[in-house]
Specification:
By secondary structure, the chain is an alpha/beta fold. It has helices at about 1-10, 15-25, 25-35, 35-45, 50-55, 65-70, 75-80, 120-125, 140-145, 165-170, 185-195, 250-260, 285-290, 310-320, 330-340, 385-400, 450-460, 465-475, 480-495, and strands at about 65, 85-90, 95, 100-105, 110-120, 155-160, 175-180, 200-205, 215-220, 260-275, 295-305, 345-355, 375, 415, 420-425, 435-440, 445-450, 500-505. The structure holds S-adenosylmethionine.
Amino acid sequence: MADRLRADLVAAGYTVDGVLDRVGAAAHAALPHDGGAAVRHVLRETSDPCAVLIRAWTLGEPVAGTHLAGALPRTGLTGLTSLGLIAPAGAGRVRATCDVRPYAVQSGAGVLDTWLVSDFGESVIGGPLPPDHVLGVGGASLTLSSWTPRTAVGRALDLGTGCGVQAVALARHADQVVATDLDERALRYARLTAALAGQTWDLRQGDLFEPVTGERFDLIVANPPFVITPRTSEVPRYTYRDGGRAGDELMGTLIRACVDHLEPGGVAQFLGNWEIPVGADHWSHRPEAWLADTELDAWVIQRDVAEPAEYAHTWIRDGGHRPGMAGYQELTDAWLDDFARRAVAAVGFGVLTVSRPGAVGAAGSSGDRSPYRVFEEVLTPVAEPMGPAVAAGLAARRWLADHPEAAVLDRAWRCAPDVLEERYGVPGAADPAVIRLTQGGGLRRTVTLDTVGAAVIGVGDGSLTAGQALTAVCAILREDPCAHRAQVIDLLRTLIADALLIPADGVPTPGG
Ligand SMILES: C[S@@+](CC[C@H](N)C(=O)[O-])C[C@H]1O[C@@H](n2cnc3c(N)ncnc32)[C@H](O)[C@@H]1O
């Protein structure tokens, strides 16, 4: 039946591009903020198939049964009822039981037009969300999806799948997808999402890693219920965002537990919040503590920081409570008291990407080594999608960690195609005052170079190793290569880690 519905939805133009064409970019962009008012204005009294489906499954409005049956001739009302997607609404009308939203997955295999099945949001419900709300695609879902490395893998796990937004993308580059959730209703929706995508996932119910006890994966992703929530009775426990642990401890639990579920060389990626305690010397205090007793390589990027009051407002508002509404003040008090009890100065948000060392085929590896740990704050816009840069960054960082520091001098490197050199100077001056490399993609890095560093990078045409380039440059500049060696090694490692420099022979760093 899902096959028939998919064919109907495509024929009706109820796809990402079809809906965009039907309602226009402006009304479509307003949809998350205006409760569908602009879309309603565009559709007015029309009853073409795409308009009927937008009303039913995006706006959550009752529609005439005859119109819906006409829009979906292969499925019909009987088919929709058997899939649990509609219920009678009186006077010959039917109402969708859930949100069925077009979604497009871009991958190396092309674009997959599909749909995500979830609960209707606040604008359709018309009030605060119930605690068992199953989230549709949101900003955090899209962030994780963008950052996930899309390297082909064997087994992938989506922990806390919800409507299945991560799993549907994983299935494009993983041989097998296991998707779990604590919530039975979420799994019902995920099952429909998978069926509409024509995909098969292994769906399992349970808490965190419990449904995959004893199993290992090449890739684990989770947009977990990471919202720091006071554990007091007046605060609703939304399953979609509250993992039931005090403070940010859910993230620590996930990080420590994922070690046992990763294959050697496997990668786990989590979105999450971390508390930044009053007096902490660095924002990464908590992520560093979670990783301390593990052997995981880790690359943690803080993308946002919120003061406790701002954080509390965001999540109270997310549940449908606005300032001035009954209960808003009590909820604010509960959140701020909770943060005060643990002396929390701010809350960080970001992407934690960890990897289990020991990838098969790490040729040239120096063997046992300490895990690398990178904690960096990037609050500015980054490439979209970020997955390719994450994959390249993981491979490069692993190669750097696996080799002695000076090994970078033994290879030939060249600038990646998205890197530009900028030179600034006083007008008329013979030499520039500042030389910078800027990266167009990835984390959009900017790195300042000295004259020797710029010359070593500049001669990188693939014919010389970096060490040979340093010797040649120093001969021309009448400098002692030994005096610049350590600084050039540091510069090369910085540029290699973020893929501003790539191997000149085109052979990726092992694991890439
Ligand atoms: C923020 S939603 C993410 C949904 C979806 N993966 C996404 O990226 O949009 C978190 C999901 O985790 C589920 N969840 C909550 N507590 C859980 C637990 N203890 N174990 C497993 N899943 C849980 C929720 O039901 C919800 O579907």
